[in-house]
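In keeping with the milestone schedule agreed at the kick-off meeting, the structural modelling team has produced records for the first pair of proteins. Each record is given below as a sequence line and a structure-token line. The laboratory manager (R.T.) confirmed that both were archived under the project's standard naming scheme.
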Amino acid sequence: MLPLAMKLSNKPVLVVGAGRIGTGKAALLVEAGARVTVIAREQLAPLPLGLASYDARDYRRGDLRGYALVVSATGDPVINDQIVDEARTEGIWLNVVDDPARSDFYFTAVHRDGEVVVSVSTEGASPALAQVIRTLLRERLPRHLGSVARQLRVERAALHASGDSTEGVDWRPRIQELLEEAGPVDDNVLH
């Protein structure tokens, strides 16, 4: 497994299934900026705001064409088999909910503070464990990391604009300074 942070802004994403898990995945994808379509015969949980569309019908072969990512959250092994087959044929990245062996990617447990994103994965072994670890990390992280990241973005852009490289810059003293300005920080955070 290689953890990556994907830019999904305005990318077409399909979720098949509108139960609690499917609508939860759809909400995460909408939050990431994706153009999310949900296909499901029946809506079993509230759909997130900001969906591109909702098609109240069964999955049909050909539905995956044109999507960057697909999430299969049907709870029906026969339909999941059809979706896996189509995704493989079309070369589309697929997550089969609760079936990590047939998934190309996994959803992680995420803590977000502005532009700082901390993500925990167990490679599908135990999403509950990933959530517990995420909570433990969130409780230990300094507050206001998002504002620190925004300030560092400004400072890096200023260096680039003046023709300087940020390669080789030891940012740790500046980060420590910004963290201290933002509020109390555990001395062991950066060491």
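The second protein of the pair:
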Amino acid sequence: MKPITYPTLISISTLIFFLLAAQVAFAEENIAIEAETEVDIQADDNESERSGVGANVRDTLEAREEALTERAAAQAEARASTSAAREERQAEMQEQREERRAELSERTKVRVTNLAANISNRMDTAAARMQNIITRLESRISKLEASGLDTTESLAALASAQQSVDAAVTALARIDVTVQTAVTAEDPRAAWVEVKAAYTAIREQLRTAHTEIKASVQALKDAARANDGERGSAAAVQTNSAVATDAEETTVTSETETTVE
């Protein structure tokens, strides 16, 4: 075996040195490459994370917007439902009011008809009583006239009373038609004004007849006092007393008053 000389040893050492240096440099280059790779990966991760956060934010905003839209739609639907329900209730209330108004109208018609019938009956009774007294007075005036008593003034008053009674009876014969027209009108209460006017006119005619009957009786009394002859005067006074009693039986007071509540 050939022995290793000093120069050869130096060459080997140099070779080993360069090999070691090359390994170190290669290792450093690998470290640098790994570091850069790691940085790039981390950057990519950060970018991905940021992208994920942004996506989450967008999703959250979209979800919130969708929720607001749904809430607005629900509120609009609720308002529409409430409005429809309110209109329905108003329609039902209006229908109920119309039904009550119709019922009240029917009751008013019946009430007005009954009131008119009561008033007409009272006036018919008063007119009949007055006609009876007028008939009796005419008979007695005829007898007193035959006995020589001046009955001109008494007959005139009685004729006026008869005219008033006749007018009242004629109006009463037509009053049912006037009442029927009023109760079938759209507004019976307003139409009752005409009926009331008719009853008022009849009442005044009956009152006039009552006044004229009393005037006729008073005229007979005055004629009897003025008549010469004691026998004739006594008979006249006796007859007039009976006639006056009949006349006082006829009254036209509250029984012929017409009122509309």
